[in-house]
Amino acid sequence: MAPEPGRILEPYRDYLRLLARLHLDPRLRPKLDPSDLVQQTLLEAYRAMDGWEEHTPAERAAWLRRILAHNLANAIRDFTRARRDVNLERSLEAALDASSSRLGALLPDAGPTPSEQAVQNEQLLHLAHALIELPEPQREAIVLRHYENWSLEEISRHLGRSPAAVAGLLHRGLKALRLRLQDHAGEEV
Description:
This protein is an all-alpha fold.
């Protein structure tokens, strides 16, 4: 018996929300919630899901990133009243793929075997879920430092906090992130 489509798609919600948050133009954030983009993406995926239960998690993630890139491009076009720009969709898709790779870089390096790749994909979903669960200031500090490669000084100016306060956010956030990931690894045993 094939699993329900919702069960196949739901594990990707936090992953997509994190990607949407990272790539949503800051000028649009007051007007558009990344969760709305994710909901639209999952709805479209659900409607077009025929046969996707047989695909690998990596293939599903890539497919969902393409849908999210299309929805991000539509949101930008709708709010800026620009015509459809296929190059914008392609650049957003490439940016989402790169973001996924950078998130994966926070995980231990996985080997090239299919089983190791499947484990890394699952870990990436758990990492995104754990990041979403962190308090906003910790999550933002971690993303800016480890995803955007910002310096401590740049982050402190952006957040309006002292470098020592940002260092504390990073320390507490990374500690909480490790604990969440360890707890999840313990649940699987």
